[in-house]
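NADH-quinone oxidoreductase subunit H: structure tokens wanted.
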Amino acid sequence: MATSTGDVGGLAQFGHDSWGLMLLKAVLIFVILMLLTLFSIWAERRVVARMQQRIGPNVNGPFGLLQSLADGMKLILKEDLIPKTADKVFLIAPAIVVTPAFAAWTVIPFGPTVKLPWSDNHTALQLTDMPVAVVFVLAMASVGIYGIVLGGWSSGSTYSLLGGLRSSAQMISYEVSMGLSFVAVFLYAGSMSTSQIVAAQDKLWYGLILAPSFVIYVISMVGETNRAPFDLPEAEGELVGGFHTEYSAAKFMLFFLAEYVNMGTVAAMATTLFLGGWHAPLPINLIWDGANSGYWPVLWFFRKVLCFLFLFIWLRGTLPRLRYDQFMHFGWMRLMPLSLLWILAVATIRTINLNGGIDRQWLYAAIALGVVAIGVLMFVGEKKQSEAAAREEAAEFDAFAGGYPVPPMTAAAAPRRTG
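Answer:
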């Protein structure tokens, strides 16, 4: 049966819903994600069109809202082609990608505990929760990588295989920095449960007091979802179409659906962990006592999620695509060291505060000096590399010295003499 009282909090409020209520929640999550995907596709085409001084979809339905639905029906009804060299895994790879994308939403809190309209029972606006809910979301994202790798390998195409390997390397690299950005939240909230992390932000959002973690997560979530300027799996000029080159019709639609659902997932996680979840933003919660009760928090939650989705669209319409070496270098040599140093700083501050504390002026000054020193060292290294590259380019080279035009050979590619 559903929870009979509204004062049960924490993880104790989950696991008491009836099977019918749990099924209703699961169906509502599925419907919400499908509608969110259709709206995201339409909004992306309209917003990018406005940025490029075009009209965008405006024929099917009011303001073109049914264009995404029409495209989905077209993909479902199209002929499904399977390459002769494809493996049997080719058929199940899209399901491996899309299933974890939906499963991750089972631990996302949409709102507080509310009274059911048809009875006196209460239930949380969340399907379920667990002590390691955030780790569960990361695990679901990791399972989706298997679908991408298997999709590229099973296509029987060299370009699809290269696209799958590059996509998996990209997602794994930025998933590490994404997970590291969560550690500071765990230290402050004292829990990995999504509902308890939201409850811990009733006074102050972690996006403010843990701003470096928030920035690292926002960058990592763009790389994790393969979106511009990190949309290397879709680098048509390099790998045709990436890991899904050989997919068509409904199977391609599942890959497309998983990408947009994952966009919503990382946006919901950013909202949950850093922007107070379903809590009303300032100054609404100060002037209205009922802003965080009832079903109103669902509105605040999705407004924050839509802001992140607009950020995805804005980045796609304004920034050019990075090179693969630049992208991987930034993830491993910039984001990960900064994440580790920030975790060390947060852990030090929390330990000092819990043990009585010291003069925070000296602590903040030491942290500021450390950040400045790290920045200087990073830029000095970049400057030395740039100067070395400039000297190499400035070196005189005669392309016709051997009678035929040949490109210059770098020091790394030059053959080594032995003996």
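The two ends are 82 Å apart (CA to CA). Confidence is low (pLDDT under 50) at residues 1-7.

Cheers.
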